[in-house]
Design brief:
Arc Repressor Mutant, subunit A; two-stranded antiparallel ribbon
């Protein structure tokens, strides 16, 4: 299986409108903490940043969250901030 095929399978699973456990964890954190960054989500949830960043991308792709701006994160670097744009979470 090529990388492109793997990406297509991942995309299909996202468009199925189901959030997996990690996506739900990230979604709930953003819902309760609007204006947060990937780094803040990772720190607060105990997830690795490398796991959080793809989840926020997936949630943006399916229309659950949006980028709201940028701010300095805990590392001192500027990062995108997110907030929930719909409270209806796909099952």
């Amino acid at each position: 299986m090529t990388m492109a095929q793997t990406s297509l399978f991942a995309y299909d699973s996202i468009t199925a409108k189901e959030l997996n456990m990690k996506q739900k964890k990230v979604f709930e954190y953003i819902k309760n903490n609007p204006g947060c960054t990937n780094e803040e989500i990772a720190h607060a949830t105990g997830m690795r940043l490398q796991s959080v960043t793809p989840r926020t991308g997936e949630l943006r792709e399916i229309g659950c969250i949006a980028i709201t701006g940028k701010k300095k994160g805990p590392s001192g670097r500027y990062a995108m901030t997110y907030e929930v744009i719909t409270n209806e979470v796909p099952n």
